[in-house]
Specification:
The complex is a heterodimer of chains A (about 200) and B (about 270). With about 200 residues, chain A is mainly alpha-helical. Chain A has helices at about 5-10, 15-35, 40-55, 65-85, 115-130, 135-145, 150-160, 165-185. Mean pLDDT of chain A is about 85; it is low at about 95-105. Chain B has about 270 residues and is mainly α. Chain B contains 11 helices and no strands. In chain B, helix 5 packs antiparallel against helix 11, helix 6 (about 120-140) packs across helix 9 (about 180-195) and helix 8 (about 150-175) packs antiparallel against helix 9. Residues about 120-145 and about 165-225 of chain B have low confidence and may be disordered. The chains are: A mainly alpha (about 200), B mainly alpha (about 270). The interface of A and B includes residues 23, 27, 109, 152 and 167 of A.
Chain lengths: ~200, ~270
């Protein structure tokens, strides 16, 4: 059964058909939630809530890209969660070193030597910690653009802001991340330091 | 602040340049700047590498399946009471009780007042007096009364007026507790219609009654077709029955709303 047929069946209340869609997109949705939230448990919650919300609202889906529709739901859920966390801030740059490396699913990547894996793991941990210091509006746009690869127009539609706002938020996020990497570059593996070519 | 804004504007150009989102003119201007500005080239390169690092982050696999079960989506089909209804139920209950209490107090107060006044028709009887006086006054000026009234009626009327005055005198000390003109006015409309078939003849007598009522001593000034004393303004009407009715209707409305809100909570 193709995606359109699955969506129509789900719109008629067929939960099995909807679960087929869940299996197709769960990794992408979880990845986005994890990159925005920076926490595996919170990402799991956001992913589950996204699929529940999507099933309940699938009657309002009027065609177009189903995955974009899902990404919009999860991005908004993550954004709400970040704003909630902002009222009770728990993440800081200093806290990034305490992230449990073994428990971080971002570090699972086969086909690498132990040394390469360790370096990539360190880099991923560093970057995730850096992303987690960004303000929520910049973080969501950065992840949608540079992790998910969405265009400006798609991001604007997802977060419901003008394209110009997307451009400026993305630029500020990248500049801030660049500045952080330059300031804390000594924490990066040598191969990934921004000034390593000098 | 100006240099910060300028730096932000430059970063926006560099970011859009990396995404290929600049217009041809903007792109040409930026490339011209890059050709002569080493610092700008460094900033662009650092941003390019930053973006590349983020894009190179490994895709994270979901640690488990997120398949939905009927239990997970069941609340979607179950009717949940509206938040407003759930919050309103206790408030409406309290408001209904309050309104019912106020209504009961008004009704009891009304009954007690009537008991003290002695005659429940006092407030209701006042308006007819005013209505009856208007045409009577006009007629008194245009046509002399004695000729237009049959002899039997005149006799009956005089008897009634005398009786009324006597009653007024008797009641007056008690009526001092109530508003001054209430007692005589109460009796007059009740008595006159039974004795007089037409209100026309009441004019002279009304004037006499007014005089008797206003003065504590029974010294009615007989007016025969002459000018009547200016009509006294009616006493303020207590609106208790109206208030009781309003409160009763309010209580009823609140009761209906309360039942609706509580049913939504269940």
């Amino acid at each position: 059964m193709d995606e359109t047929a699955l969506i129509r069946a789900a719109q008629r209340g067929n939960l099995d058909a909807f679960n087929e869609l869940v299996l197709t997109y769960q990794h992408r949705i979880y990845n986005l939630a994890y990159r925005i939230l920076g926490d595996p448990a919170a990402a799991e919650d956001a992913t589950q809530e996204t699929f529940i919300a999507a099933y309940r609202k699938i009657g309002s889906f009027r065609g177009g890209s189903f995955v974009s529709w899902l990404l919009r739901i999860v991005a908004n859920r993550c954004y709400d969660e970040l704003r909630r966390q902002k009222r009770r801030p728990t993440t800081s740059w200093e806290a990034f070193g305490e992230i449990d490396e073994e428990a971080n699913p971002a570090l699972i990547n086969g086909g690498e030597s132990p040394e390469e894996r360790a370096e990539r793991a360190e880099l991923a941990r560093f970057l995730q910690a850096a992303i987690s210091t960004l303000p929520p509006d910049q973080r969501v746009v950065l992840v949608l653009s540079d992790v998910e690869g969405l265009s400006y127009a798609e991001i604007a539609e997802t977060v419901r802001v003008p394209v110009g706002t997307v451009k400026s938020r993305l630029a500020r996020a990248r500049a801030r991340l660049r500045d952080l990497l330059q300031e804390r570059g000594e924490l990066l593996p040598r191969a990934y330091r921004l000034e390593n070519e000098d | 602040m100006g240099w910060k804004r300028e730096a932000a504007r430059t970063d926006e150009l560099l970011s859009a340049y990396l995404d290929g989102a600049l217009s041809p003119e903007e792109r040409a201007r930026l490339e011209a700047r890059l050709a002569v500005d080493a610092d700008l080239r460094d900033r662009l390169e650092a941003m390019r590498r930053t973006v590349a690092l983020v894009r190179g982050l490994p895709r994270v696999e979901a640690p488990r399946n997120f398949l939905l079960t009927p239990d997970m989506v069941a609340p979607a089909t179950r009717r949940r009471p509206a938040l407003l209804q759930r919050r309103l139920a206790p408030v409406l209950t309290f408001a209904t009780a309050l309104s019912a209490l106020a209504c009961a107090l008004v009704v009891i107060g009304n009954l007690l007042t009537l008991g003290v006044g002695g005659f429940g028709a006092a407030p209701a009887a006042a308006p007819p007096r005013e209505v009856a006086m208007e045409p009577a006054t006009e007629e008194a000026e245009t046509e002399p009364l004695p000729q237009s009234v049959p002899e039997e009626t005149r006799v009956a009327m005089e008897g009634i007026v005398t009786e009324t005055l006597e009653i007024t005198k008797t009641v007056a000390p008690e009526a001092a507790m109530a508003p001054e003109e209430e007692a005589p006015l109460t009796l007059a409309p009740a008595a006159v219609p039974t004795a007089l078939p037409t209100p026309v003849v009441t004019a002279g007598e009304e004037a006499a009654k007014s005089g008797a009522t206003a003065a504590p001593t029974p010294s009615p000034a007989p007016v025969e077709g002459g000018a009547l004393p200016p009509p006294t303004p009616p006493p303020p009407q207590p609106g208790w029955p109206l208030l009781a009715l309003g409160l009763a209707l309010l209580t009823l409305g609140l009761l209906v709303a309360t039942v609706w809100a509580w049913r939504a909570r269940v």
